[in-house]
Amino acid sequence: MASADPRAARVALDAADTYERLGSPEGELALAQAAIYLAVAAKSNAGYNAYNQARAFIRQDKSREVPIHLRNAPTKLMKELGYGHEYRYAHDEPNAYAAGEHYLPEDMAEPGWYQPVPRGLESKIGEKLALLRKWDEEAKKK
Predict the structure, then answer these.
(1) Which residues does residue 43 pair with via DSSP β-bridges, in sequence order?
(2) Mean pLDDT calculated for residue range 93-115
(3) Is 59 inside a domain boundary?
(4) Is residue 42 part of a domain?
(5) Residues 42, 122 contacting (CB under 8 angstroms)
(6) What is residue 9's three-state secondary structure?
(7) What per-residue confidence (pLDDT) applies to 129?
(8) For the residues 74-86, what does the mean pLDDT come to?
(9) Among 56, 60, 96, 139, which one has the highest count of C-beta atoms within 10 angstroms of its own C-beta?
């Protein structure tokens, strides 16, 4: 199900669940409504492509260290080593986003595997990603 609407899978599963629980004719109506929803949903394989690119990267790449600021520090030694130091809790940040924060290993650039299409809900996702990139760039200038 390659849809630009991330809700499409949930609609299909809900219809199947309705059919299992209620049987005919209500379940059949739910399946028909799901089929219509899926038929007219904007199509995209961006998520599928990103997933496959990430898997291929993992297969060929080496193991990398988790950035120090993202590591849990349950012991005094780990705290002394800087684990978790300068971690920014997104919920406490403006717009609930830690602009400029880097979550990938230090030697790894943003891979950009996910490229949302300008259709369906993915167009909104693309707009949000562009806004987050803008905030990241502004944070780097500070």
Answers:
(1) 3
(2) 93
(3) no
(4) no
(5) yes
(6) helix
(7) 96
(8) 95
(9) 139
pLDDT of 1 strictly over 80: no
Q: Which domain holds residue 111?
A: 64-141
Q: Are 65 and 106 contacting, i.e. CB atoms less than 8 angstroms apart?
A: yes
> Is residue 67 a contact partner of residue 61, using CB atoms and an 8 Å limit?
no
- CA nearest to 39, candidates 78, 5, 74, 87: 5
Q: What are phi and psi of 43, to 5 degrees?
A: -100, 145
Report which DSSP code applies to 86: T
Are 87 and 69 a contacting pair, CB within 8 Å?
A: yes
- How does pLDDT run across 16-57, given as a tens digit for each residue? 999 999 999 999 999 999 999 999 998 999 999 999 999 999
3-state secondary structure 24-63: CCHHHHHHHHHHHHHHHCCECCHHHHHHHHHHHHHHHCCC
Report if residue 18 sits inside a domain: no
- Burial environment of residue 14 by CB neighbours within 10 A (0 to 12, 13 to 18, 19 or more): middle
Percent of the chain with pLDDT over 70: 99
pLDDT in tens, 52-74: 999 999 999 988 999 999 999 99
Residue 16 lies in a domain: no
Report the domain count for the chain: 1
